[in-house]
Amino acid sequence: MKTNRRSFLSTALVGGLTATVLPRGAEKTPAPVPLDLSSRYARLDEILKSPVLRKELFPTPVIIEKIELLRDRKNFLCRVRSSEGGEGISVGHGNQNAKNWPVFKGFIDRFTGKDARELDAWTLDVPGKSGGIPYNVQLATLEIAVLDMLGNTAKKPIAALLGEVINPRIEIYHGSRIKQLLNLPPEESLELVRQDLAITNAKAVKIRAGGTSHLDADSKAGTEKLIRMAREMFGDKMVLGCDGNNKYSVKGGIRMGKILESYNYSWWEEMVPFGWYDELKQVKDALKIAVTTGESESYLSTFRWLVAHGACDTVQPDTLYFGGMIRAVRVARMAAACGLSYVPHITQHGLGYLYMLHTAAIAPNAGRFQEFDGYSTKDANGDDVPIQSKTDPFKCENGAFKVPTGAGLGLMIDPAYVKKHEVVTTW
Question: Is residue 219 domain-shared with residue 256, that is, in the same domain?
Fold first, then answer.
């Protein structure tokens, strides 16, 4: 049976403004998607105006008394305290923080003394040249620390601050091993993936495609051989996807997509170069396999275009690159309104997969499988970030994680690790 893109998408309700939300797999007639472009844009604009943070959980102001950027060599943490004694902490994306950390001084000056309940208003698109991924990473680092503080104050997990937890258990796909899958013979790289699967018992895997020299070039591993061998090794029941790493033309992307379809792969990710939005839609319209994109996007307006024009089947904002959880939830809501699914991308640094759990937990259109790059939570120095759950252990059981139920992020970072970081005072 050939792959149908809808088999990879959530079968939950897709009415972006309705109050009723159902868990994945629930039977419900989807809300109609507006057929004309202007009506779709009107619906998306209403969604973007809707609040995300549940301010009703905080009847009185939560004033931010102190924002601190903490540094240990290349790595940065953010710690936030309220005037009432609440505290939150976050781990950002190490590479971007190391390059652009002075931007954070502006956030400290701007938001110290402000009411944290107004977090929605802080996370809108920044116009002009001052936005983009470098800015967004700093914003996400602050936002997640503030959300952790608010969750600790309300004694609720971050997910419950942003919506109703309807997906308390999140199935994952393995999305790591990028270097091995692109460079090693499939016999070697897929054996490493098999070892990963033995730890989590995940039911889905993403492989990699694309060469480094020019568009449509074969990888050193041999892409078509990898596609075939992955299906042979893992069997027909394993859900497989493929990341094109922005290395294909329209013609090449369609060709590879049809090969993936012939081996019953479920999704084809990021195949055309970044910014080729019309070309992405051409690939999507020519294939049955689900087309996914969005990991490098930094503006809500771009996702607004992608969703309104139906240029993909799944949106993949990166929580850190895109500026935090509230912005990611806004993208998930827009996607739901037009029948698309939500599968956030996860960067290789910090606590990305834990951040993902909080937003996927509340998305009625969350895809069946969410990305997971492994248990190791490395900081920018290459050191493990030592964490401990406040409640149930962070453990993948039968291919799925329980969404954290402890307050805030639901985890504690080892105080000795935090203590190695010094407060930045010179900018």
Answer: yes
